[in-house]
Amino acid sequence: MQRSEYMAMMQGDDGTLGTAELVAAYERGIDDLRSAVAGMTPEQVLARPVPGRWSTVECVGHLADTEVFFTDRIVRTVAMDRPLLMSADEKQYIERLDYQSFDLGEQLALFAALRRHVVRILRAQPPEAWLRTAVHSGSGLLTLRQLVLQAIRHLRHHLPFIAEKRAALGIGGPSA
For the chain, give me the number of helices (H) and strands (E)? Predict the structure, then answer.
């Protein structure tokens, strides 16, 4: 899938979820990510059992860093009139920040704190705020609703990769 197709899928609005359901799905991501890594040992989160794929800690580091972007984008879209949102190249982050050395607990805490912060802000917004727009440097005009959907979908996109690592390590799902 090309990047433009991926971004269209991630940012598209299907209109089926109300704002309360969107906020609940966004908040549920905290537990979904914690559950995805539950019970893994430090050695397992550092392992790269699938050739060419990130380790679990690298995946969680990526999710925490992109949550920083999503938080900034969502908050600025609420607070400002048509802010400019800059795109970022995830490959530069993983290469230059050494995600493999990150502490899994710290990354989970960062992700959770950012999501809780945004949930509080989103719950306080009137219905018309969800139509507020921002201009993304790569994708163009986006609504607040699309930004929240993108954050939800981004996490959902990466959770199967963590499950794939668990399976390759023979440790099964979190409830196993």
Answer: 7, 3
